[in-house]
């Protein structure tokens, strides 16, 4: 095994799995990309991404559960921001990565590669 301890490796694996889960949905990925630019209210995110307020609420709950975003109270409303300042540059780096994907391999419903 590498110099990472087994527990650190499991922690890192779990963290990457949470990020992967968050990025596996186009709406959640869009939220993360929008929040890397600036904090926003859920209604503004819903409008920008073309989804209902209910869909946005569900996606933000998922992202909160993954520990990637946090809500900040603002009177009767709340706005959202990325939970960690390291996340914005990490997303920027991911955007710089160019991957070759077989057009018929992954259709959004799961990978059919064999």
TrEMBL record:
Pfam families, per database record:
HTH_5
GO BP of this protein: response to cadmium ion; response to lead ion
Could you name the domain of life of the organism this protein comes from? Bacteria
- Stored SMART domains: HTH_ARSR (SM00418)
Where the record annotates domain HTH arsR-type, the positions are: 8-102
Alphabetized GO MF terms:
cadmium ion sensor activity; DNA binding; DNA-binding transcription factor activity; lead ion binding
Q: Which Gene3D superfamilies match?
A: Winged helix-like DNA-binding domain superfamily/Winged helix DNA-binding domain
Per its UniProt record, what NCBIfam families does this chain match? HTH_metalloreg
- This one is known as ArsR family transcriptional regulator
Phylogenetic placement of the source organism: Bacteria, Bacillati, Actinomycetota, Actinomycetes, Micrococcales
């Amino acid at each position: 095994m590498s110099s990472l301890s087994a527990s650190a490796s499991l922690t890192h694996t779990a963290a990457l799995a949470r990020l992967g889960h968050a990025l596996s949905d186009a709406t959640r990925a869009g939220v993360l990309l929008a929040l890397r630019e600036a904090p926003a209210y859920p209604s503004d995110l819903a409008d920008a991404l073309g989804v209902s307020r209910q869909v946005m609420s569900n996606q933000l709950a998922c992202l909160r559960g993954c520990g990637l975003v946090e809500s900040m109270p603002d009177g009767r409303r709340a706005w959202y921001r990325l939970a960690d300042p390291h996340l914005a540059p990490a997303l920027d780096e991911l955007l710089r990565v160019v991957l070759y994907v077989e057009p018929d391999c992954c259709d959004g419903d799961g990978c059919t590669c064999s």
